[in-house]
Amino acid sequence: MSLSNLTSRISGFHRMTMEERLAAVAAFAGLDDAAVAQLGRSGNIDAHLADHMIENTVSTIAIPVGVATNMKVDGRDVLVPMATEESSVVAAVCNSARQCYDSGGFVTSVSGNLMIAQVQLVGVPDPGHARIRILEHREEIAAICDGCDPMLVKLGGGFRDVEVRVVPSQGGPMVVTHLIIDTRDAMGANTVNTMAETLAPSIEQWTGGKVFLRILSNLADRRLARARAVWPVEAIGGAAVRDGMIAAYQFAEADPYRAATHNKGIMNGVSAVVLATGNDTRAVEAGAHAYAARHGRYTSLTTWEVTADGSLAGMLEMPMPVGLVGGATRIHPTVQACLKILGVKTAAELARIMAAVGLAQNFGAIKALATVGIQQGHMALHAHNVAIAAGATGAEVEKLAALLVARRQVRPDVAAEELAKLRAG
Ligand SMILES: CC(C)(COP(=O)([O-])OP(=O)([O-])OC[C@H]1O[C@@H](n2cnc3c(N)ncnc32)[C@H](O)[C@@H]1OP(=O)([O-])[O-])[C@@H](O)C(=O)NCCC(=O)NCCSC(=O)C[C@@](C)(O)CC(=O)[O-]
Ligand SMILES: NC(=O)C1=CN([C@@H]2O[C@H](COP(=O)(O)OP(=O)(O)OC[C@H]3O[C@@H](n4cnc5c(N)ncnc54)[C@H](O)[C@@H]3O)[C@@H](O)[C@H]2O)C=CC1
Question: Which domain of life is it from (predicted)?
Answer without folding.
Answer: Bacteria
